[in-house]
Every structure is written in C-alpha cells, then in structure tokens.
Specification:
The structure is a single chain. This protein is an alpha+beta fold. It is about 20% helix and about 55% strand. Helix 8 runs antiparallel to helix 10.
C-alpha cells in the first residue's frame, strides 16, 4: 500500500513543483525584463522623491519579494552636475507580500545598503539639512509591518589638509515596529593605507531604544561603549525641544602610576623624537583612572540648522560645569558657546541664566569652514594673589586654526595667526603668534605631551611641555626657547624690556604646581638701553648725559617669578664704557630689594663735571671706577642710594699707599661733592 501511494502521489507533487518553478522563473524573467525597460522611470521617480539626481546601474528582482539595485549613486543636488554625495555598491530592498497581494501596495519592509561610500563632510551636511524630513519619513512608515534599515560596511572618507585620508567605517541596523524603535551598530576610524594605523581601531558601539510620541520621540536608552568606556542617556524629543539626562565614564584617560615626572633634556630643535617619551611610557603600570561625567541634564532647541543650547549641566570628577550657547550647522558652521566651571561648588547658581559665569569660564565664538576655524576665545580663571582670589583673563583671537592627524595617529594643530591679550593682576600683556604649529599624541595616558613652534613678532618660539592629568589640580610643565626676537617687542611680557633694544635669546621653564612658577635666562646682544629708569637716574645724578642711551655688546640675566616674588639674578651688562652686575627682587607687596654694581670707564666719567676733580686726584692709575647702589621701596616709587662708603673702601683696597700718599681727605672731599645732591 505504501509503495502504491509513493508511486501515484510523488508524480503529482513533482508536477506541481515543476509548475511552480516554471511560473516563478517566468514571473522572475518577466519582472526583470520589465525592470530593464522601467529602469529610467524608476531612476526619475527616486530622484524626484529624494530631490537629488540619482543614477541606478541595474535593477534585479529575486523571488519572492526582493529587489536589488546595483551601482547606485546619489548626487549632491537635482541637477546632477555636482559631485556625487554617496555611491552604493548594492541596495537590497524587500517588500511586504501580504500588502502587495491584499492591497496591491508595495510597502518596503527591509532596506539594506551594501558598501556605501561617500564624503564625510557632504554626508553630514545632507543629514543636517534633511533631518526633519528624515524623521517625518520614518514616522510615516506603515506601523503594521516591521521596517528594517541596514548599513553594511559604510565608509565616509575624510581628507585632511595634508592629504592624509581616513575612513569613518559604519555598520548599523534600525528596526521600527509600530511605535517602537530599536537600533544598534558600531563605527570607527581607519587610516588609508592601513599601514599608517598606529594600532587596531577600537569600534564605538551604540544601542538605542525608544518610541514615537504624538509630537516627537522618547529616548528610552541611548548607550555608547568603547573598550572600558561607557555612556548612557535617556530623555525626549518633543516638537523641537530635546531633553536628555545621563552619564559618561571614560577609562584610561590617564595612568596615575608613573614612577616620576618626565624631564626635558634639550629643545634646541623641534625635529621631534618620541623615543624618550616612549621609554617613560613603558614604565607605566596597569592601574587606570577614569574621567567621570555625571549628572548630565540637557535642554536644547533643535531648529536645524540651528541648535540652541538652553542649558547643559554636568559634573566632571565632581566639579560642576554649565554649557550654554548656539551652534549653527550651516556653511560655514558657526558657534557661540559659554562653558563655566565651579571648582568650589559653592558658587553654583540654583537658577541658571544666559549670563551665568563661574570661577572658570570659557566663551568661544567662531566659524568652521573647509576644516579651518577662525574666531575668538575668552578664558576667565581664578588665581590667588596677595592671599586674595582674583579673576584673570586671556583673550585669544585666532585665524585659520586646523586640526588633522599625521602618521601614527599624531594630532597636528596649525594656526595662521593668534593674537593673545592676557589681563593679569600685574597688568596687561599681549603676544602675537604667526604660523603656530603644535603636535601631540592623544593616545598618551597620564602625561599629555605637546611640541610646538611659532614665529613671535620678528623672532621664533619653540618648545615642549606636558599636562599631568593624574594630579588635582591638573599640572602643566613647559620648556621653551625664544630666538632672534627684538627685545622691545617683548615688553608686553616684561615691562622693562620696552627700554631695551637688541636681539633677544631666552630659555624659559614654567610649571603650574604647587604654584605658578617661571624661571629662565634672557640674553640680549648688540643693543642699547634707552632711558632705562636706573641709568636715567644715574645720568641726572652723576651729570653724565651719555647714560641716557647706553650701547652694549651683551646684556644677560637669570630670572624667576612666582606668586610671591619676582627675581632678576646675575645681571650682567657688558659694554665698552659701562658694566653692570647685581640682583633685583620685587616681592608680592611690590617692595623692592636690589643691589647693583656699576662700572664706568674713565672716558665716560671725564664727561661729568662732578668726576673731573676726583679723576685729577687719582691720576692715571684707573681706567674704570666701580660704584655700588642700593634700590629699595615701592616698585613705582623706588629709592636709589649710592653706597659711597663701599666706593671709598674699593679705592683704599686698590691703592696700597692710599693713606700714606695723603690723598684720603682729598678723595673724601671729592666724593662728598659728587653725592651732595643725593
């Protein structure tokens, strides 16, 4: 019986299967023939729907419900004359068979983009300009069917100013069913070619779930994760108001276990070698510290291309911050943002306003165009001066600032021009930098090293430094060299240099902890002093007019400055007619303590009516006389005192038979006539 059934039932089954296969093949053939002739019409319909010129290489139907579009390209505008916005190797589009059979309606249920390629900047502009239309399209999808949108191995190319190419690699899946939305994926940057990649990229994974509201969208969970770093946000987008809450924790921002702070051996050249820094990095242990950004509360208005940040508050490692301002995502992109920090947490206002500022405030204005940023940066920060907290300010106006990665993932910063005005407790200082270059490795752990050079007025500046992120407060150390600069141009840094003319060379070391501390050396060559305050007083006191302008071969000094004292040590002036040695200290209360030793040639002294009697008494034994002076009092009202007793002692030591020769009283009389007007 069984054999009978197999004999007579298999044949009908084979017959029916054969018929179905033939019908399917026939339908597939007919549909594909139709698509060949319909390709132009399909292209025009898609172009009209997107508002951009679209090109479709071919369309293929695969049973039962799949249409594959190959070699698809979308232009930037409808004319088709502009550059291609994105090209896609293959689009797999599935439609609902139920909707097609019952309602004769083609409803897309699955849309997969295989290997899409595009330009990063153009695609970002496209998404920004069409954000509202994209949201409207997603909300208009039929809720009866599950809709899936998949991006498989998408690559958006980004080219830096130096020609270095990188790809943002994207894999993403979006699923919509009814009012529920779910998406997940990953993205990372890859270098081109891959040999330039410093290490294997760490993808940033994301996951978002939420639901459509009547007038917006509810974000149930928005999560980001990369290695040991994690962020989570939640909130709502209603009409054009976005409200979010959440937190962010980033691991390995710094490593706190370095055995010692690094030092700088030499910075005479800025051809940078990372070998020394790498040897330090190898000493690092595995213990890591995190950067925690908690208590994020965000409220902003999305009126694209404009985003108005009404208020974003958050805490960075327990320090409260507030961000407010406007970002305009147009061409060029414009920003006007203010970020305030409240380190003591006592000055945090309960009700924020647009003018609320903190102990540390950064106000940024600028425009971003073709990877170049121009604008203004205003930084206000506290310092303790004379046991009182004062707010100091740095205003930076910059032009054509760019950031781009070089080989081995080193970040290079360039700025065509930067003008800095620094308002401090001791006055206003100005600096003009041109062709500023800085290089650093963002992958460093604890110590963030930076190497830089720039023209400084008519001279050149170069140096290196690092920020120690493991310490609180953050510590900054820097060594730098200034070469071939006109000394009077740098009077904006040291006021007294306004009266010093010559070619300056300086080495400077700065550290920010435990207090602001600057030390170094200054050497000025082939210059002159023009009405320098001390020499001006000497010219009037000794009646030597030539001291109003003193030409010299070399002027050198060691300096040190911190919050308590400013010191000039080892002052040395080398001139044919004038020499000067000594020290000069200014303390936090503006009190001066100084002692200077001055040497004047016989020829210079002979020009003074005060010294002619003394020179006649001494005869031709001296080619130069040395004088000691003491400076004291307040900085703006200094007292100058000639130590004539020291001068007399020097003469006695220099003339063995000073007393026996009987010139002591004559010398004392001459000295008295010199100093009678002091």
């Amino acid at each position: 019986m069984a054999s009978y059934l197999r004999k007579y039932l298999i044949k009908p089954s084979l017959f029916i299967s054969s018929i179905l296969i033939i019908l399917t093949a026939g339908v597939t053939l007919l549909v594909n023939i139709f698509l060949v002739f319909y390709n132009q019409s399909l292209t025009e319909q898609v172009s009209d729907f997107l508002g951009r010129k679209v090109s479709i290489g071919s369309a293929v139907y695969l049973p039962p419900n799949l249409i594959v579009l190959k070699k698809v390209s979308i232009c930037k505008d409808a004319s088709g004359s502009s550059e291609i916005l994105v090209s896609i190797e293959k689009i797999r589009s599935a439609f609902s068979l139920g909707q097609f059979v019952q309602k004769k309606n083609v409803t897309i249920t699955n849309l997969s983009l295989i290997n899409p390629r595009g330009d990063y900047s153009k695609c970002v502009s496209f998404l920004t300009e069409n954000f509202e239309q994209i949201i409207e399209f997603l909300m208009s999808l039929p809720r009866e069917e599950v809709f899936r949108f998949i991006v498989n191995s998408g690559r958006l190319r980004k080219v830096s100013q130096t020609g270095l190419m990188r790809n943002l690699v994207i894999d993403a899946t979006l699923k919509i069913r009814g009012d529920l939305v779910y998406s997940h994926g990953s993205l990372y940057m890859e270098s081109i070619p891959e040999s330039l990649q410093k290490s294997k990229p760490k993808p940033l994974h994301y996951r978002v779930s939420g639901s459509f509201l009547e007038d917006g969208f509810e974000v149930g969970e928005l999560e980001f994760g990369q290695a040991d770093s994690y962020a989570k946000l939640w909130g709502t987008l209603e009409q054009d108001i976005l409200k979010l809450n959440g937190f962010l924790s980033i691991a390995h921002v710094f490593d706190a276990s370095y055995p010692q702070e690094p030092t700088f051996d030499t910075i005479d050249k800025l051809h940078i070698s990372f070998l020394r820094r790498r040897s330090i990095a190898r000493l690092a242990k595995s213990s890591a510290s995190r950067l925690n950004i908690f208590n994020i509360e965000c409220e902003m208005y999305l009126k694209l291309p404009e985003v108005e940040i009404e208020n974003i508050t958050f805490s960075v490692n327990d320090v409260p911050f507030r961000l407010q301002g406007i970002i305009v995502f147009s061409e060029p992109v414009a920003i006007d943002l203010t970020c305030s920090a409240y380190p003591d947490q006592k000055s945090v206002p309960e009700v924020p306003t647009a003018t609320t500022t903190g102990d540390f405030t950064v106000h940024a204005q600028g425009e971003f165009h073709e990877e170049k940023i121009s604008g203004k940066l205003d930084v206000i920060f506290p310092r303790t001066v004379k046991e009182k907290k004062v707010l100091e300010e740095a205003k930076i106006t910059f032009k054509n600032l760019t950031f781009h990665f070089l080989e081995k993932q080193l970040l290079n910063m360039q700025c065509e021009e930067a003008f800095t005005v620094y308002n401090a407790a001791n006055g206003t200082h100005e600096l003009l930098f041109k062709d500023f270059h800085a290089l650093f490795d963002p992958n460093d752990t604890r110590f963030k090293f930076v190497y830089f050079n720039s023209t400084l007025y008519d001279g050149f500046l170069e140096g290196e430094g690092y920020v120690d992120l493991a310490q609180k407060p953050t510590r900054f150390i820097c060594d730098l060299v200034i070469k071939d600069a006109s000394s009077n141009n740098l009077s904006v840094i040291l006021t007294h240099l306004s009266q010093v003319y010559g070619t300056l060379y300086s080495r400077i070391h700065f550290r920010s902890y435990p207090q602001s501390h600057v030390k170094g050396t200054i050497t000025v060559q082939d210059g002159y002093l023009d009405d320098f305050e001390f020499f001006k007083w000497l010219a009037d006191f000794f009646r030597i007019p030539s001291l109003h302008k003193v030409y010299f071969d070399t002027l050198s000094v060691n300096f040190l400055a911190d919050d308590n004292v400013g010191q000039l040590e080892n002052i040395n002036l080398d001139s044919q007619d004038v020499t000067l040695e000594g020290y000069f200290h200014v303390y936090v209360d503006d009190l001066v303590s100084s002692k200077l030793s001055l040497g004047l040639s016989r020829e210079t002294l002979a020009t003074s009516p005060k010294f002619r009697p003394l020179l006649r008494i001494l005869g031709g034994e001296f080619s130069r006389l040395d004088f000691d002076f003491q400076l004291s009092g307040l900085l703006d009202r200094m007292n100058f005192k000639w130590l004539e007793s020291d001068f007399k002692r020097r003469l006695q030591d220099s003339i063995p038979d000073f007393i026996e020769r009987g010139i002591e009283k004559k010398v004392e009389g001459a000295i008295g006539s010199i100093s009678e007007e002091q």
